[in-house]
Structures are given as C-alpha cells and as structure tokens.
C-alpha cells in the first residue's frame, strides 16, 4: 500500500483514548452507552479526551438506540454544543421507517456541523438500498467516510459487499473512504487490504476484557502491526 491504513478505535473515556493513541490508533470514535450501540458522549467527556490526546476524534451524534433520528432539533443543539467546545469531526446516520435514508434529518444535523468532516455510520448496513443511499448522499458537505461491515450481521456476512464496493471507489456515491468495522477480525485484514481498503474500525477487538474493561494499548498495537506502520 502506498500509505498507512487508518486505524480508528472506539473510546468511551480518557483512559481509553490515551491507551488507543499509545497503541498506534490514528483516530477515535467517541461514544457512550455501548449497550445501545454507542450514543453521544457528554460535552465534558469530549473536552477531556480532546485535551488528553492529539489524534483525530470523531464524536457520535446519536441520542437513542436504533437508526431513527428522533428529536432532530435536539440533535442540532447537541451538534452545536459540540462545535462550541471545539469538536471538529463527527459520526451520524439516520434512516426512516422504510429503511431509506432520512435526508431531512441528515441535512439538518450535517448543516449544523458547518462543513466539518463526518462519517455515515453503520445505519448503511440496515438500509433498504445501500447503493441508493450512497447516491443520495453523494454531494453532502463534509461526508468523507462510510463505516460499514457490508451487512447487518457483520464482516463475515458482508465481505462480498465490501469487496464489491471497494472496486467501485471513485464512482458517483463511492468517492468516500470505506471504513470497515462490525465484527472485524485480524484474519479479515489481508483480504481487505488486498482489495485496496485502507481504513479499519475496532471496538471490542481493542478490549480483551470485553466492554466492561478498558482499551488495551497492546491490543491496538497488534492491529497497528498487522495493518502496517
């Protein structure tokens, strides 16, 4: 590969963030409440983590379990609050009841980010038509990444989709970086790298003790070694 692959690690607190950076992470996804698959952390947590590390951090904008936007005005206020404390990168993604992208909610929340870079998260793996979703979002300001396993069931199930989408990179709707996460294991990495995929996202894989334990710098370092320095 011509450049270092991106390694993004989920962080819940300052301890996680510091360990992830020490292990060689390039970026953090900041969340709380993994029982709900990751919700927006407090502003104080975001501020503390940004002060503790000097790698990029992306803040989750999600207020409840599921992929419906819910209270969009509240989401906008939260986004503005995070911008006010200096957050510069974000994660979001909203679907309607029919499984189509909720364009209205995405427009309102992304608009509050003032052009900041953001990831559309694994809501894409629950979309009724992921190709249509990508094309509808193709020109959204700041959208530079899709976090996806290729399927709702994880990378084992979604690997053929990931490889097919990697081959389409550069087409309309496929200019954004493919960030693979969701049941991702080290043994998946060689195939994904060979396909030209250059961004990887881990959560539980960085925590040998499970979600009740902290991020392990050693576990992150093993991923960094496999991905290349």
Automatic annotation (TrEMBL):
Pfam families: CutC (PF03932)
GO molecular function terms listed in the Swiss-Prot or TrEMBL record: copper ion binding
Species lineage: Bacteria, Bacillati, Actinomycetota, Actinomycetes, Kitasatosporales
Classification via InterPro entries: CutC-like, CutC-like_dom_sf
Record-stated family: Belongs to the CutC family.
PANTHER family: COPPER HOMEOSTASIS PROTEIN CUTC, COPPER HOMEOSTASIS PROTEIN CUTC HOMOLOG
Name of the protein in question: Copper homeostasis protein cutC homolog
């Amino acid at each position: 590969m011509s450049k270092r692959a991106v390694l993004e690690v989920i962080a819940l607190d300052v301890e996680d963030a510091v360990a992830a950076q020490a292990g060689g992470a390039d970026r953090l996804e900041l969340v709380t409440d993994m029982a709900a698959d990751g919700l927006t952390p407090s502003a104080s947590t975001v501020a503390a983590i940004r002060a503790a590390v000097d790698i990029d951090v992306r803040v989750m904008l999600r207020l409840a379990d599921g992929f419906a936007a819910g209270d969009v005005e509240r989401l906008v206020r939260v986004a503005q609050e995070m911008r006010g404390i200096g957050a510069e990168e974000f994660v979001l993604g909203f679907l309607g009841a029919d499984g189509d992208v909720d364009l209205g909610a995405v427009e309102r929340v992304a608009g509050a980010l003032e052009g900041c870079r953001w990831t559309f998260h694994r809501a894409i793996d629950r979309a009724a038509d992921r190709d249509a979703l990508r094309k509808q979002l193709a020109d959204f300001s700041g959208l530079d990444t899709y976090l996806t396993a290729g399927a709702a069931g994880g990378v084992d199930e979604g690997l053929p989709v990931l490889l097919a989408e990697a081959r389409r990179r550069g087409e309309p709707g496929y200019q954004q970086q493919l960030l693979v996460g969701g049941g991702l294991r080290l043994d998946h990495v060689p195939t994904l790298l060979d396909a030209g995929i250059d961004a990887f996202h881990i959560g539980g894989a960085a925590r040998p003790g499970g979600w009740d334990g902290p991020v392990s710098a050693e576990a992150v370092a093993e991923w960094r070694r496999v991905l290349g320095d």
